[in-house]
Specification:
Elements lengths: L7 H6 L1 E2 L5 E3 L13 H8 L2 E2 L2 H11 L1
Antiparallel strand pairs: 1-2, 2-3
């Protein structure tokens, strides 16, 4: 039985932290930024963690 391959699309989108949580980028930050407020754009620059409901599935894709 060969080894399981990790999901390459998930590898590009998610990173694992030192404590085991999974980080992701926020949506709505690629274009049409002139109509968004400065506060909203600043918040979009920061990443966020994946919800616990989805982290198990994403963790399986990364390994």
């Amino acid at each position: 039985m060969p080894k399981m391959k990790s999901n390459r699309a998930a590898m590009k989108r998610f990173k694992k932290t030192g404590t085991g949580k999974i980080r992701r980028r926020r949506a709505y930050s690629s274009h049409l930024m002139s109509s968004k407020t400065t506060k909203r754009k600043r918040t979009l620059r920061k990443g966020t963690t994946v919800s616990p409901a989805d982290s198990k599935k994403i963790d399986r894709m990364l390994s």
